[in-house]
Design goal:
binds zinc ion, Rossmann fold, alpha/beta, two-stranded antiparallel ribbon, 35% helix, six-stranded parallel β-sheet, 237 residues, binds ligand BV8, globular
Length: 237
């Protein structure tokens, strides 16, 4: 099992959640914007932020770390990638077994009836743009369309969450890449794996909250370390 966070997309040029926000949103913390009441209070500010992030993700590519996980899946088909990220870089790299705990930038839905809203392929904003955009109107009920992500204070989707818990309690190796391990309940997955006697390898240039229970904590960038350790592991296996 692999648990990934914003850090695995950092070398693709996608800022992590801990990076300061810029432009129109610089006076906010991501944690203030990624909430239901921020959207309630200022829907065009929040919808603009997510469209800007979607434009940015659409303008970059998966990196060496994403590709290393595709090779891991090819060599070990039972590999499951559980991600906290809302970008589509794992899928675009070729990973097939990806579980999104916090939703996706590419799956907006109606805040009223839940109808899945089809976004026009072309993002509504330039990557270096950054402005308010009125959220679209639901074609089924006329309600307001919202980003298809899990906001702070919202429960995780039941399916992905139980799939992630099942994987954590049955894996023999958990690789944790690019997550500060601060956001719950995702950050409790390593503890579940530990209880199931899995080995835990953390990859992060900085200390993380998972280090305390890791078997190994490798200090470095995902794009550099992940290809190397998987190369060694898969060759020697
Ligand atoms: C829930 C989608 C309950 C949105 C996200 C007190 C008050 C209020 C709430 C709480 C509280 N205490 C706990 C909570 C619960 C809260 C929470 O955990 N808060 C934290 C801040 C304390 N959790 C929730 O609210 C969750 N829901 O609890 O619901 C409930 C239950 C039932 C019924 C009703 C309600 C929902 C949490 C999900 C929030 N949504 N994302 C969006 O993206 O806009 S979370 C968001 O933040 C990301 O998805 C990500 O998961 C998280 C940021 O974490 P990371 O991914 O780790 O990113 P971060 O920037 O932190 O770290 C990056 C790491 O990468 C760093 O370590 C860095 O060193 C490393 N790195 C950098 N470069 C590289 C690298 N690593 C490798 N290579 C590199 N090159
Ligand atoms: Zn609707």
């Amino acid at each position: 099992m692999v648990l990934t966070g914003a850090g695995i997309s950092a070398e693709s040029g996608v800022p992590t959640f801990r990076d300061a926000l810029t432009g129109l949103w610089e006076q906010f913390d991501a944690e203030q914007l990624a909430t239901p009441d921020a959207f309630e209070r200022d829907p065009s500010l929040v919808w603009g932020w997510y469209e800007w992030r979607r434009a940015r993700v659409s303008a970059v590519n998966p990196n060496e770390a994403h590709r290393a996980l595709v090779q891991l899946e090819a060599a070990r088909p039972q590999t499951i990638v559980v991600t906290q990220n809302v970008d589509d870089l794992h899928e675009r790299a070729g990973s097939r077994n990806v579980v999104h705990l916090h939703g996706s930038l590419f799956a907006p839905r109606c805040a009223c009836c839940g109808h899945r809203h089809v976004l026009d392929a072309k993002p509504t904003m330039e990557p270096d743009g950054g402005r308010r955009i009125e959220p679209p109107v639901c074609t089924a009920c006329g309600g307001k369309v919202r980003p298809g992500v899990v906001w702070f204070g919202e429960p995780l989707p039941a399916g992905p969450w139980s799939e992630a818990q099942a994987a954590a309690s049955s894996c023999d190796l958990l690789i944790v890449v690019g997550t500060s391990g601060l956001v719950q309940p995702a950050a409790s997955l390593p503890t579940i794996a530990r209880r199931a006697n899995a080995s835990i390898v953390v990859i992060d240039p900085r200390p993380t909250a998972i280090d305390a229970i890791s078997t190994y904590s490798l200090r470095g960038k995902a794009g550099q370390l992940l290809p190397r350790i998987l190369q060694e592991a898969l060759i020697s296996a």
